[in-house]
Specification:
single chain, alpha/beta, D-Maltodextrin-Binding Protein, domain 2, 19 helices, 11 strands, 13% strand, globular, binds alpha-D-glucopyranose
């Protein structure tokens, strides 16, 4: 077990033990305020952390992919310097979205006040709404107009704003400009062209002595990232969006099967066998070490790839992903900040969340970490565009990104996605073929959603 995972497990055990211990005491000595009849916690005890004269600690559970943790800590520091009496602390959470969700669910189950603010995925508002306060009751109405309306809408559940948009993203193709030139190839616009270019470059680089070199790295592990990759293949091959916004389950179709089978053919040819165990950071490590011609990843990998310690600094570019028989498609990703209903200091936590999502912080994160702002005006900001030129040149990719079917399947999206990525993974690993896997998946999705 990694040090990070061990620390998380320990933290969780401590939180659960603490919740259990106080639960054995008197009637109302739990650290969580009981909800009133509307479900809103009331300050019913004297055990909150904000004793007179003591600092209020606000804990934000945040990601640590790429520079995420470092930049969240930097923003926390900015808040701390300007707000005496409040200390914002950052709890680093697992990289894989599914693992992070698992951790959050344990905190929610225990109605834990340990975490005040959660960084939540763009696909979770519908599944997790009940655990968050309405940020419209805390001033979010004054700022939501600055953010992309579709992302704000995605965060509204029954009229409540369950989280404030923090950053958005979409899948991109990273490619080596030096190697395309060396082998006299163009940036691929179709999956077939990518397959061809990746195999020529891989063969050439291996013959030149780099036996570790691979053509294409992406996210093929059995987790949410595979849902994102596979949705891109399928949508770009006119295979639909798994479940359409009107509730029609469309995944069992020949175009979807064709492109999943094609991707299965990459495993062990232009992609290493290990790609079926890779997440974002695994792919980035190979790419940034100079050992891949192409990578599918999110924008955050751009700043790091341009870093001084990167083997690909100055010799790569990014574009829209290739297309199948349709147009290129990028999956819409991104993260929001929600304030826990079980927080002892919701008012202060909401203020911190709004600060974290403010123009000032989003601009800093865009420039230093290539995290796409959700505030529209920042796409016209000269300093942002200078640091991350593709925020301008690939603007359409971000605006037209394909959403996963989370709104239509809420609160069951996680089950839908799990069934989907497991089915795709079983094809990638050669356990079955796509036609059979999708036939079975359709039945599973009917069971899960009732559609
Ligand atoms: C990125 C995206 C997120 C997605 C995840 C999958 O973090 O922003 O929306 O669920 O990748 O790995």
């Amino acid at each position: 077990m990694s040090k990070k995972k061990l620390l998380l497990v320990l933290l969780l055990i401590m939180a659960l033990v603490f919740a259990g211990l106080v639960g054995c005491g008197t009637d109302d000595d739990d650290p969580v305020d009981d909800p009133d009849e509307n479900g809103t916690p009331i300050d019913d005890d004297d055990d909150t952390v904000d004793e007179p004269g003591e600092d209020v600690v606000i804990t934000i559970a945040a990601g640590a992919v790429g520079q995420e943790l470092e930049l969240t800590e930097k923003a926390a520091q900015m808040y701390n310097e300007r707000n005496e009496g409040v200390i914002v602390e950052v709890l680093d959470t697992p990289d894989l979205a599914d693992d992070r969700l698992g951790l959050y669910l344990q905190f929610f189950e225990a109605q834990s006040a340990e975490v005040d603010i959660y960084q939540i995925d763009v696909i979770w508002p519908g599944d997790l709404a009940e655990h968050f306060i309405d940020l419209y009751d805390h001033g979010a109405g004054d700022v939501v107009g600055d953010h992309f309306p579709a992302i704000v809408e995605n965060n509204e559940v029954d009229g409540a704003l369950v989280a404030i948009p923090w950053f958005t993203d979409a899948g991109l193709l990273y490619y080596r400009t030096d190697l395309l030139e060396k082998y006299d190839l163009d940036p691929p616009e179709t999956w077939e062209a990518l397959e061809n270019a990746a195999s020529i470059i891989q063969e050439g680089e291996r013959a030149d002595g780099n036996s570790d070199f691979v053509g294409f790295v992406w996210q093929g592990n059995s987790y949410e990232g595979l849902t994102c990759n596979a949705l891109e293949w399928i949508a770009s091959n006119e295979g639909g969006e798994i479940i359409e916004p009107d509730g029609e389950i469309t995944i069992n179709n020949a175009n979807a099967a064709e492109i999943i089978d094609m991707a299965a053919g990459w495993v062990g040819t232009i992609s290493p066998n290990g790609v079926t165990g890779m997440a974002e950071e695994d792919a980035r490590a190979i790419w940034q070490g100079g050992n891949a011609a192409f990578m599918r990843n999110w924008p955050y990998a751009y700043s790091l790839s341009e870093g001084d310690d990167s083997a690909v600094q100055g010799v790569f570019d990014v574009s829209a992903l290739p297309a199948g028989k349709g147009s290129p498609a990028a999956t819409l990703g991104g993260w929001q900040l929600g304030v826990s209903r079980y927080s002892n200091n919701p008012e202060i936590a909401a203020d911190v969340a709004l600060f974290m999502a403010s123009e000032e912080v989003q601009k800093m994160r865009a420039i230093e970490g290539a995290f796409n702002p959700t505030i529209m005006s920042l796409y016209e900001d000269e300093e942002v565009l200078e640091a991350v030129p593709f925020f301008g040149s690939l603007y359409d990719v971000f605006i037209n990104a394909v959403a996963r079917p989370s709104t239509v399947s809420a609160p069951r999206y996680n089950e839908v996605s799990t069934a989907f990525f497991r089915a795709v993974h079983s094809v990638l690993t050669g356990d079955t073929n796509a036609t059979d896997a999708l036939e079975e998946l359709e039945l599973d999705l009917q069971d899960i959603t009732g559609f």
